[in-house]
Structures are given as structure tokens and as C-alpha cells.
């Protein structure tokens, strides 16, 4: 009869430890990544004042955005973009990263139509993704759509092509769906 009394305090102690770990670990990881990023950017700029390099970088990006809005700079930026799109290896990197950024935050956002793709005939198995192309007839795949499937806890994903009949639009904000998928289903809307 003494064994249950001894194990109850140990279980309580273990529970407290696990609860503390769940609270502490994400905060520590977030702070560590934030400070590592600030130090890395400071190192690139060559300034020894913590955070100054990040501030200068943010200001420079904002200045480029402001310049890009002016009529005179548009011509120079168009010329630079045309140049970058002509160089073979650079073209691949530049256009891919530009398209990816535009898909998330640009004027041509693509991850706006969240869908469930049925993988089985009975619809019991499915995946959640985003329609990135409604019509693939120009690729010889009429009636097919392109669906991007982001991966959980990763900055990658897969593109699948499925018949339009296999997708069901979700009436949920696409940002919440992306958070749900990337978090492995842990993040929920309204939390």
C-alpha cells in the first residue's frame, strides 16, 4: 500500500516538469532563433550594436519598396528584373523566389483557395491544400487542377495534379488553413 503514495508525488512532479517544458521550450526556441537571426544580420552588415543591422536591413527594404513605387525607379527595376530573368541559373533562382513570395504576400497571392483533396474513391482519405492553378489545359491536362500541399513543420511542400471532381473547397480563411497544415494539425482556428 505504500507504493501508490510514493508514486503519486513522482507523477505529480513529472507532470509539473512536462507542463513547464511545454511552456518553456517554445519560448526559448523562439528567443534563440530571434537573437541568432539578429546576430546573423548584424554580422552581415558589420555593425556591433545588437539589432542595428536588422533595423538597417528593414529600413533598406522599406526604402526599396518606396523607390519601386516611384515612376523613375520603375524603369530601372524593370531593366534589372529583365536582366535577372535572362541569365540561365540566376533566372531559375530569381523567378522561383519571386513567385513564391508573391504567392504568399504579393499582389498576386495564390494561396487563397483552401481545398480538401479526396485521395480515395469513397472520400475517406484526404489531404488539405491550396489550388494554385484552376485550369491546366495549356499543359494538356484539361479538367485537372494544381493543388499545393504544404508540409508540416517545414518550408516545403508537394504539388499534385488531380481531377477537379476530387477537390472540395473549404470555407475557412486560407491563413488559418495554412497554420493548421504547417503545425501538423495542432493549430486550430479561433484559438
Can you characterise this structure?
The chain is of the alpha+beta class and 191 residues long. It has a domain at 114-182. 53% of the residues lie in helices and 16% in strands. The chain has helices spanning 2-45, 52-68, 71-84, 88-104, 174-182, and strands at 114-118, 126-133, 144-150, 157-163, 167-169. The protein has a five-stranded antiparallel β-sheet with strand order 4-3-2-1-5. α1 crosses α2 (52-68). The protein is flat, with a radius of gyration of 24 Å. The model has no long low-confidence stretch (mean pLDDT 79).
> What is the count of β-strands?
5
**What proportion strand?**
15-25%
Mean pLDDT: 79
Q: Name the helicity range.
A: 40-55%
What sequence of helices (H) and strands (E) makes up the elements?
A: HHHHEEEEEH
**Content-based structural category:** alpha+beta
Count of DSSP helices?
A: 5
Largest sheet: 5 strands, antiparallel
Cross-sheet strand order for the largest sheet = 4-3-2-1-5
Q: Which regions contain 5 or more consecutive residues with pLDDT less than 50?
A: none
Based on Cα principal axes, name the global outline: flat
- Cα distance spanning the termini: 43 Å
Cα radius of gyration in angstroms: 24 Å
Amino acid at each position: 500500500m505504500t507504493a501508490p503514495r510514493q508514486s503519486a508525488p513522482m507523477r505529480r512532479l513529472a507532470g509539473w516538469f512536462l507542463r513547464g517544458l511545454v511552456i518553456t521550450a517554445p519560448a526559448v526556441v523562439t528567443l534563440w532563433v530571434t537573437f541568432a537571426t539578429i546576430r546573423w544580420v548584424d554580422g552581415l552588415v558589420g555593425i556591433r550594436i545588437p539589432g542595428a543591422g536588422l533595423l538597417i536591413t528593414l529600413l533598406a527594404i522599406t526604402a526599396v519598396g518606396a523607390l519601386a513605387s516611384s515612376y523613375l525607379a520603375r524603369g530601372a527595376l524593370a531593366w534589372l528584373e529583365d536582366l535577372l530573368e535572362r541569365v540561365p541559373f540566376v533566372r531559375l533562382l530569381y523567378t522561383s523566389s519571386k513567385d513564391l513570395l508573391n504567392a504568399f504576400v504579393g499582389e498576386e497571392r495564390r494561396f487563397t483557395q483552401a481545398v480538401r483533396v479526396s485521395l480515395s474513391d469513397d472520400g475517406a482519405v484526404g489531404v488539405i491544400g491550396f489550388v494554385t492553378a484552376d485550369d491546366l489545359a495549356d499543359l494538356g491536362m484539361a479538367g485537372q487542377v494544381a493543388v499545393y500541399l504544404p508540409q508540416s513543420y517545414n518550408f516545403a511542400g508537394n504539388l499534385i495534379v488531380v481531377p477537379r471532381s476530387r477537390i472540395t473547397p473549404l470555407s475557412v480563411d486560407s491563413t488559418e488553413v495554412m497554420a493548421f497544415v504547417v503545425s501538423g494539425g495542432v493549430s486550430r482556428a479561433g484559438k
